[in-house]
Amino acid sequence: MMSDALIDIQAVRHSYRTASGPLPVLDGLELSVPEGGFVAVVGPSGCGKSTLTRLVAGLLIPDEGEVRVHGSRITAPRSNVGMAFQNPVLLEWRTILQNVLLPLEIVPTKLTKAEGEARARKLLALVGLEGFENKRPSELSGGMKQRASLCRALIHSPEVLILDEPFGALDAFTREDLWQIMHRVKAEEPFTGILITHDLRESIFLADQVVVLSGRPAKTQFVLDIPDTGLRTLDDLYTPIAAERLNILRHQIEVAQGRIPAEAVT
Ligand SMILES: Nc1ncnc2c1ncn2[C@@H]1O[C@H](COP(=O)(O)OP(=O)(O)OP(=O)(O)O)[C@@H](O)[C@H]1O
Predict the structure, then answer these.
(1) Mind listing the pLDDT tens digit for each residue in 138-159?
(2) ipTM score here?
(3) CA of 12 to the centre of ligand 1 (A)
(4) Does residue 16 have its Cβ closer than 6 Å to ligand 1?
(5) In what order do the strands lie in the sheet with 209-213?
(6) What's the CA gap between 263 and 266, in Å, rounded?
């Protein structure tokens, strides 16, 4: 199918082979992210959200259906992807700056060593870590480590940024700080991204589209567009429209969990 989406997932089905037989995880996954788009994916625990990120990174080829990036079918692992996870996994024997530079040692880059370092310093300043370049990971708080991990995911200007619950382990205030930092980063360093999250407020604050997956095997159950209304502030989460969006998504999650019938929310 022709599409101008940067990431285009169509009719994907996949089962893991396990000792006790095939485990169907995805059945009817559809997802489309335009260039510069930021899509949040929410769904019941264990429904296949991380599996979706593996498909986009080319770490997993689906049994059926297609995963395309820029129109090309993904058939092998992709280096042009940036990833950040709940656990920031920074290397203790490297400084923060050296940690951020790590992807440039692994994936092909046009940047010289000096340019790479300048970019790393710029990204660190953008997330408020100026002055921490030469610290070790253990000298940083959880939120600061996660900010460094975000810089590392962006250092090679990836075609796609995949964030798999990056703020999940942080306390509520730190998480809200990170949300605001994400907006700053997106404005200064535009990216195309997929955010996996369990936090509905996070999804409507950060993304321009929220995709709800059904229970396993997951299909795309519901899509909510969040129109671009310019810069978002935390106050926007306490408006009637935000309350309405959260209510819609909460009900969709209840449907996905099988706790209420689909008819109850239409
Ligand atoms: N390599 C694998 N082999 C077999 N089963 C797997 C494999 N990876 C994941 N699974 C199973 O597939 C299902 C979906 O896993 P996945 O990690 O994609 O879900 P998730 O939605 O990200 O979960 P959570 O919300 O708990 O983070 C789970 O039941 C998991 O146990």
Answers:
(1) 999 999 999 999 999 999 999 9
(2) 0.95
(3) 16
(4) yes
(5) 81-85, 160-164, 193-196, 38-42, 209-213, 220-225
(6) 5
46 C-beta closer than 6 A to ligand 1: yes
Using the 8-state DSSP alphabet, how is residue 169 labeled?
Answer: T
The position carrying tokens 């935390």 is 234
What are the domain boundaries of the chain? 1-78+160-166+186-266, 79-158
Instruction: Tell me which of 15, 17, 47, 219 to substitute to probe ligand 1's pocket, judged by most ligand atoms within 8 Å of the beta carbon.
Output: 47
Q: Give distance in angstroms: CA of 94 to centre of ligand 1.
A: 31
Expressed in angstroms and rounded, the spacing between residue 45 Cα and the centre of ligand 1 is: 9
**Domain 1-78+160-166+186-266 belongs in CATH node 3.30.930.10:** no
Determine the distance separating the centroid of ligand 1 and the alpha carbon of 205, expressed in angstroms.
26
Residue ranges in the chain modelled with pLDDT below 50: 1-2
Tell me: the pLDDT tens digits for 34-49? 999 999 999 999 989 9
Phi/psi of residue 131, nearest 5 degrees: 95, -10
